Each structure stands twice: as C-alpha cells, then as structure tokens.
Amino acid sequence: MDAPTRHPPLRPSPFGRLFRDGHPWVWITRCGTALLLLMVVGIVAIVAVNGLSTFWPRRLVRYELKDGTVVVGEEIRREVRKVGQASVEETQVFLRVGNRDLSGGGGDFRWIRADDIRATSTPEDLLAFERMEHGPAYGRVRQVIEVETVDGKRRNRVVAEGAAARAALETGMEAAAARREARLELQEGEMDRVSKRQNELNDELRRFQREADPTSPSFAGRKQALDARKAALDAEFEPVAAKVRAILAEDRRHLVLLEDGAGNAFPKPVPMSQILRIDAVNALSFPGRVGLAVGRFWRFVTEAPREANTDGGIWPAIYGTVLMTLIMTMFVVPFGVLAALYLREYAKQGVMISAVRIAVNNLAGVPSIVFGVFGLGFFCYLVGGWIDRSFFPEKLPTPTFGGGGILWASLTLSLLTVPVVIVATEEALAAVPRSLREAAIACGASKWQMIRRVVLPHASPGILTGMILAMARGAGEVAPLMLTGVIKLAEDLPLDGEAPFLHPERRFMHLGFHLYDTGFQSPNVDASTPLVYSTTLVLLGLVLVLNLGAILLRNRLRKRMRTGVF
User: Fold this and answer.
1) Cα–Cα distance measured from residue 135 to residue 297, given in angstroms and rounded to the nearest whole number
2) 418: pLDDT confidence band, cut at 50, 70 and 90?
3) Which of 205, 264, 273, 378 could connect to 176 by a Cys-Cys bridge, CB 3.0–4.6 Å?
4) What is the CATH number of domain 315-497+507-563?
C-alpha cells in the first residue's frame, strides 16, 4: 500500500496575517481617536480665538471714500462677496463705525467697497469712548459744557473746547464716577432696604385688611399702628430719594459734546456720567494694548450686562450658573448614591429591579425639555403654588415660589442628571472587590458598617466621576431653565448678604440662557455675535474649573486608598 502523500502546511499570506493580528484595527482606532481630539481642539481654538479677539483693541481707521465722505471705525474683516445679478466678485470691508447717535439709532456696523476707498489713515488723536448707552463712540471731544441757572433760566457754558476738552473731560469723569458710585450705593443699599421693608409692610396691610374683623375693638388701633409705620417708612425713604435726585441733577449739569472723525458734531451733548472710559487706541504700544485687552476681559466677567445684553459684562450669569450647579450637586449626589446603594447592596435582584434599572437608563435619554415641563408643572405650579397659598397669600396673584426660581431650577436639573450619578455609583460599587466585603463581615462588622467603612471609601472615586459628569451636563443645560427660573436680566442675586442670605424663590441669570438670548434674541446681531464667543469661552472655562476641582478631590481620595488612610 502506497504511503499517503504529505502536503506542506498552508502558510497564510502576509496580508491575512496582518488582519489576523489586528494591526489595521489598531491604526483605525488611533486615527479615529486622533480625529476626535482634533475636532475638540479645533472647536475650542475657534471659540478661544473669536472670544479673546473681542477684547483686543483694534486701531481706528479713517477711510476717505471717492465720493468725498469720511468713515471712521474698527475694521472687523474683509470679504470677497458676490453682488448684483451678474454675481460680480468684489472685496468689501466690514466696519464697526459706532456712533449710533449720528445714525439716528441705526446699526453701528457697515459694509464699504474696497474699490470706493481713496485713502486710509490712523490718526492718533482718534478716541474710543465706552458709554453706558448707545454702544461705543469713535471720534474726538469737541466741548465740555456746564449747565448754569441764571435768573431761573438754564444756559450752557463752555468750560473747555478743542485740544483742552479731552483733559477737562477726563478730570470731570473722575467726579462723575464718584457720583455714580455714590448713587449706586444709595440705590442698592439704604434705598433698597427701605423699599423692601415698604413692600413687606404693604403685604402685611393686605393681610390685615383681608383677615381682620372691622368690628373687633383692636381693629382701629392695629390699623393706626400700621399706618404710622407706613408713614415712618415713607419719611425714611424720602431723604434717600432726595439724595439720589440731587446726584442725578448734578450729573445733568456736566455735559460733553462729541464729534466723529469727520468733524460732525453729535446731535446733542450727553452727561459725563454716561462716558465710562476713553481710550486712545491708535497711540497705544503693544504692552498698552495687552493691558487694555486684559482690563476689558476683567470688566466683562465682573460687570453686569447693558444695552439688552449686547454690551457690558456677564457677572450675574456667572454667579447664577455656579450657584445653580452647586445646589443641583447638593441634591443629586446624595439621592443618586442612596438609590444606587439600595439597588446594588440591599434590593433583591429580580425582574422588578431589572425594570428599575432599565427605567433609569431610559430616563437618561429623555429630552431635557420634558424635564423642564415636569419641573414647571410639579415644582412651580403644584408645590410653589401651594407654598404661595399657604404662606404668602397676601402677595397673590403675584407669585413668590410659584413663578419659578433657582431652587426649582436646581431640583429639575437634579432629576435630569440623577441617572448619571446612579449608573456611575452602581459601577463603582460593583468594582469593589468581594474579598473586602467578606473580610469586613468576617471581622464582625454589620452590613451598614461594611458599606460605610469599606465599600463607600473604595467607591468614592467612581461616585465623584458620576458627580463630575452630572455637573458638566447640568451646567450647560438651558431648555429646563427657561421654564423653571432663568430670566434675561436679574436685578438681585439669589445669594447675597441680606438675611436669609439664600433666596430660593429668586429668578437668576445663566450663561447658557445668556448665550441663547444674546445670539438669537438680540436686536443688534452684529454687536452680540462676538459676545456669544466670549460667553461660550467663559462657560467652557467655568465647567473646566468646576470639573477640575472635583477631579482633584477624586485623585486625592484615590491616593488615600492606595496608602490605606481615610
């Protein structure tokens, strides 16, 4: 019998061996990760460049056009645009010309054709004026005026004119700033306190009129005491109001008349108190420009908004965002951890617990606006309405808690983010080795002692991871807040130095809603677009700072676990 023929073993091709070893898939995952990182870095870079460029002082350029007109402004950008029915391409310059007063309240941005420009220059005597109203102004100081009253008639006396007018204006602005600070101190201090006491007394009067019995012997005396208190508060309020009126009258006495770069005077003089800053941007050196940019950014994050959120700062929005996120975290972390502890450590695993876990996972995918509608209906209308009817009936129909506030907004976002904390906590609890649990039980510890002394310390980094994710998502949510407590402009902060210090019924500003309002509801889109990038940059930085604090705490706990010290 012939011996069987032996064939040499088949050797896989190099191409097949390459895919069998998985090297192409490794490179595909690397490229995908690199692409994602590149996209994230690109988005952050776009936001950072456009946001920070908002504060850089551009030179004021004087354009002389071929038709003899003169245009002065900041050159924002140049674009090649198609115009006309023939779609002819031409270069156009986009300028911020400011001086809304001269344009009759129109826009302070303008396009001009590059071919229409005959000459350009950057005179060093051109000034940029930051104003309380009507946006920036570009030009020069023509006259400094003081209003006098002679024989009962008001007349304007020119204090300085021409080259001396700028120095006189800068001197007068110091006194105007002092008066403005004094007025704000009176309005936000003593006047505000007396006004709030008057409102409380009015509520007490309405409650007395509704509940008191006119036939009671004490009715007349009680009514007289309340009227006396009202008269005393009115008498206390009037001197403060008189001081404020005197400051405003003094402001109206000191005026300044501006002119644009072509020498055209503004329609009428404005009070010096309306001028916040004067910057000779064309005469600044590079260090001076850097200092001015830093100062502008600092004022942006520390001042209140002006001009329908198209000017000024965003401090109330930063304050409200941080406070709302902290309150939300105080609610969501304890309840999320307790729910996860019950599901993982105490509940008997079965169909019901599996259904609960499925419901929790599905809850994480519910659109945020649904949570907003629930918060509006349950927290604001149901719970807040009951609080108003029970404790603040004298203020109805004006709601106190029923109209939304930072408490209801925080609770709504807590419901929105609690699935994140539950899932992260369950995973952290499941990652604790079973041997540690058995060792604790063997040493005589009860189940709660084992959980409190062994399981929770080892699971705390994972719990903090869930808290970080919840904070990151909650800080950027907008839709639920629009229904439960956020507003365009908040006069009072939810947390201040006045008892009871934390005011849960107050509505607040939020950076996310400020972005929406500035970007899509602004009457001046061109002026608000740079602020959108700047606010986005601040929001990203704020979320980074909050998360960084939680990450440092998590790393510290991990270090303690490695050393065995708790």
Assistant:
1) 17
2) very high
3) 273
4) 1.10.3720.10
